[in-house]
Specification:
Layout: H1 6-31, H2 36-48, H3 51-75, H4 84-101, H5 107-136, H6 140-161, H7 204-221, H8 223-233, H9 235-240, H10 245-262, H11 264-272, H12 283-293, H13 298-321, H14 328-342, H15 344-365
Helix pairs in contact: 1-14, 1-15, 2-3, 2-13, 3-7, 3-10, 3-12, 3-13, 4-5, 4-6, 4-10, 4-11, 4-12, 5-6, 5-10, 7-8, 7-13, 8-10, 12-13, 13-14
Length: 366
């Protein structure tokens, strides 16, 4: 049976999927009387055409890296964690409790503590579905998605009845002390020469990139990572080799939940500087698409997160500067998910057939 070359599987398949998604998006724009060329120019200029646009694109990218890595970690254990949204919201609660607990003298100390708080709360929220899967056989997809709704309801209760300061109308926590405010990219020496205006992207970007390296090291350079990947490939074979399934399920889901929880550092601590009701901003669900498109590899996740950061910021610019509805951003994201996820096999089979024809012609010529 013909197989695609490694480079084609890694590069060409996602590229063709993106091309097909862009083509269908152009047809949708034409059907509503809009210009695809104008839309593309506005998106590129708004998201990548200035340091200010890059600041917003990198802000969204940071969140998507965390949630994409969370899905990736669970996926390699054969688990489909779609509870990143709820785990991120609970991670935000951990960040808020840590930041409000002390008058932090410097943001570096607050960042370390908030990272631990976010990871702990995110992991704790993933632990219950993980235990139900490992011990009771409950399907991880069902339990994690239901826990998203429980997390949202819990957060509303806490923000309205517990964490909301007296006399404040909106459901949000108090603002964090000045020592817990993370520097934005425009406040970092050297980068302030590029980002001359205030941008939401902050030092959490570097934490996200560091976690991508950590995830790569765990999965491909440690014994635990080998066990996780072996279990994800074949649970019966892993059991036969002496790998404990309960241990692998719990550990991989705890790490996945911790990564999703850490996403909240970016927007709760870095941008809003307080806990808001919709702190995760849908990044938990976008992380699924990021992981799928990134082929569940940290490098691919970072690149896919950048693409979705571009789509998010570019879509917002469409709503600001054109008559194209901002919902087109969701349409484009859905098409990207469709072709890189659900229709991935179709693209792969098409390219495999094309490569097979080329091989046949070469053999015939020889």
């Amino acid at each position: 049976m013909d197989r695609l070359p490694r480079w084609a599987d890694v590069v060409l398949v996602p590229f063709v999927s993106l091309l097909l998604a862009a083509l269908i998006s152009a047809l949708v724009l034409l059907s509503i009387g809009q210009s695809p060329v104008q839309a593309f120019n506005v998106m590129v200029d708004g998201a990548l055409g200035s340091a200010y646009g890059w600041g917003y694109t990198l802000y969204y990218t940071t969140s998507f890296i965390f949630t994409g890595l969370a899905v990736t970690m669970a996926f390699h254990a054969g688990l489909f964690n779609i509870g990143g949204e709820g785990q991120a919201q609970l991670g935000g609660l951990g960040v808020a409790l840590v930041c409000l607990a002390l008058p932090w003298p410097h943001w570096t100390l607050a960042l370390v503590a908030a990272t631990l708080g976010a990871a702990l709360f995110g992991a704790a929220w993933a632990a219950i579905p993980a235990w139900l899967q490992a011990k009771r056989g409950s399907h991880i997809v069902i339990t994690t998605i239901m826990f998203n709704y429980i997390a949202a309801a819990l957060l509303v209760y806490l923000l309205v009845d517990v964490l909301r300061p007296a006399g404040q109308m909106d459901p949000a926590s108090a603002r964090f002390p000045a020592g817990a405010n993370l520097p934005s990219l425009n406040e970092i020496p050297g980068l302030n020469l590029i980002f001359t205006k205030g941008v939401p992207a902050n030092v959490t970007l570097f934490l996200a990139l560091a976690m991508a390296v950590v995830v790569w090291a765990i999965l491909w350079q440690t014994r635990l990572g080998y066990q996780i990947r072996a279990f994800g490939k074949s649970e019966p074979a892993a059991r036969y080799a002496g790998i404990n399934p309960v241990y692998i399920i719990m550990v991989s889901m705890l790490m996945s939940g911790a990564l999703a929880g850490m996403m909240s550092i970016n927007n709760v601590m870095g941008e809003a500087e307080r806990l808001l009701q919709n702190s995760s901003e849908g990044a938990g669900f976008i992380g699924i698409a990021v992981a799928l498109m990134g082929r569940n590899h940290p490098v691919g996740v970072v690149l896919a997160a950048l693409l979705f950061g571009f789509l998010y910021q570019g879509g917002a610019e469409l709503g600001l500067w054109t008559s194209i509805p901002i919902e087109m951003r969701i349409v484009v994201q859905g098409l990207v998910i469709l072709f890189t996820g659900a229709l991935d096999m179709m693209v792969r089979m098409m390219l495999t057939r094309i490569f097979g024809l080329f091989r046949s012609q070469k053999l015939g010529a020889a």
